[in-house]
Amino acid sequence: MPPFIVNRSIPMITLPSLNDLPSKWNEIRERLETDFSDDLEALLHERFTEHEAKQFEQDFIDRIGCAPEEYVRIRRAISLLEAHYPDSSNELTAAAIATPLGEMLAVFGGKGLCLLEFVGQKHMEQEITAVQKALRGQFVFREDERTQLLRQELDLYFKGRLKTFATPLEQIGTEFQKQAWDALLAIPYGETRSYKEQAQRLGNPKAVRAVAAANGQNKVSILIPCHRVIGSDGKLTGYAGGLNRKQSLLALERGEVQTTLF
After folding, report:
1. Active-site annotation holder among 94, 172, 212, 226
2. Per-residue pLDDT for 246 more than 80?
3. DSSP 53
4. What is the pLDDT confidence band of residue 58, given thresholds at 50, 70 and 90?
5. What average pLDDT does the chain have?
6. How far apart are CA 254 and CA 244, in angstroms?
7. Distances in Å between the alpha carbon of 127 and those of 95, 135, 148, 230, 257?
8. Of 113, 130, 154, 249, which shows the fewest CB atoms inside 10 Å?
């Protein structure tokens, strides 16, 4: 196990402050800050008219910088990362990593990187839970050689100066999912494949839906490049981090944009 630095000042993932929300939304703001277990859509429907709900959501995006549902997902993720698991003596190294496309959460198991996702994206809570159950560990935010290497590699990647990652991986999933992810790893930098082509590589051309589902269960963004898989018609589809990020990653790898503009 590489040496690590345990530092109480090392930050967890960032929870946006709601201080800039207009005062007319104070009631719903207090609810979001204290109780995030409720269904947000139902809560907005209960509190507001349809017009008011849309206005709240727009104000939230304009003032906070993310959608209300994304804020709730971040709060829930932090709760999972802070949870104490009495039957788990193993420690999982976690780190928050800033990128031009938003903050990412990285988690390392004993063998390598097992989770790398954009903070607040869909299914993040399920992935954190899946990692914890599979590796039976406590999440500890700290810096070690692996987190430092990943930071360096992501920095070079977003500058267009890195095409192949050396950060070790620890895939958590079924055998079929791992086969699908290995097929993703075989897609060259700057190129794309369709779900059908990915299924053909696995020797099962009819398994397009199963392949798409496996891609959706990929817990390691960018390094296991599910962003390089597109629809047979060439359209972008199916990316938990958001199609805008998928488009940006593909444009970066094709040399079509300057990363400083992200």
Report:
1. 226
2. yes
3. H
4. very high
5. 89
6. 15
7. 15, 12, 23, 23, 31
8. 130
